[in-house]
Specification:
Radius of gyration: 29 Å
CATH superfamily of the largest domain: Winged helix-like DNA-binding domain superfamily/Winged helix DNA-binding domain
Shape: rod-shaped
Number of domains: 2
Number of helices: 9
Mean pLDDT: 90
Helix content: 55-70%
Amino acid sequence: MERIITAITVQKRNHERVNIYLDGEYVFGISRIVAAWLQVGQLLSEEKIAELQVEDAKEVAYLQAIKYLSYRERSEAEVRQNLKKRDIPEVVIDEVLIRLQNNGLVDDQRFALNWVENRMEFRPRGRRALAYELQQKGITREIIRLALDHCNEDVMAYKAAIKQSKKLERLEWNDYRKKMYSFLARRGFTYEVTAPIVTRVWEEINFQTTTEDSDTNKEVDV
């Protein structure tokens, strides 16, 4: 059985969607991009109507994914979970993810590399902590391994310790050491990495303080 399109009208609340009227009555709404080839007077079979609705569901899911990705880069698992929360069928989600990947909008390898680089720059973490964070994002072990290949824990531990030392510089060695060990451990650094870094930063801070005090005394003497 075929029905004739008698009207196509733009929705008032969403101008990117249109209402389709068949035989004088409203039947369904779809995205304008899906309805681009439709016109008044055209005949639609029940199979074609069902096909249009499936294509519309894919387009709606894709646009939702684009919106979700607009806030920040996401992993494939994050996008999948976001769409599942909206009761979108798995088969539709699979096709949306393929489309996103083909358009370069979802790439777990790039996501993992960017995640590690961002942590190294702003919030240094140990390899163990970084691996855990990426696992929570649904990244595979192989991609995590590749992302961490060039991760220098000594450099990251040093950067983290330098930032934290500003809060601890007035402490005596024993207290300083305990608090710094605890801080770096929470950041995922092992004792083997932490031990020499804590000593190094302590010595640098005290050398700098001693030098500044010496310079101050010289100025006073003059």
